[in-house]
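Q: Here's a chain of 162 amino acids. Please give me its 3D structure as tokens.
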Amino acid sequence: MLLLRSVFFTILLPGTVAGLIPYNIVSRRAGEPVAHWGPAQYAALVPIAVGAAILLRCIWEFARQGRGTLAPVDPPRHLVVTGLYRHVRNPMYLGVLLVLLGESTLFSSLTLLKYAAGFALIAHLFVLLYEEPALRARFGDSYERYRQSVRRWIPGRPYSGS
């Protein structure tokens, strides 16, 4: 059941944010979405692939260690401080942002770049106003120790607490 819930919420949440909405933005343009494949378009595949890999790894950690999903309505039951979460508190959002930045380059779309900036701002506010208070309430001192040891957005030294 956990696998099905994880797949469902992956399609619903990052699938919408990094797939459906960018597709709708790009499909409004006339002609081919990628009219010319140059070095920038090939290079754009790197952040897309890295961002997708980060996202999938985080979803795996949420299911394996946390016994939950990425959805706020079905969150992990245990605080996840393994994998990429040892280095940065919000790798999943960073993965989605990498995908969006890669897509904006792939499609040479200023509109997608602005959308990526808007996503970054909304994600930051969501983390500050909802996620961190909810994690503090749910996991107490263990989250506080983690929060004080691991940066919110910029990866740093690995977390060694339990």
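Q: Can you summarize the key feature?
A: The chain has one domain: 2-26+40-149.
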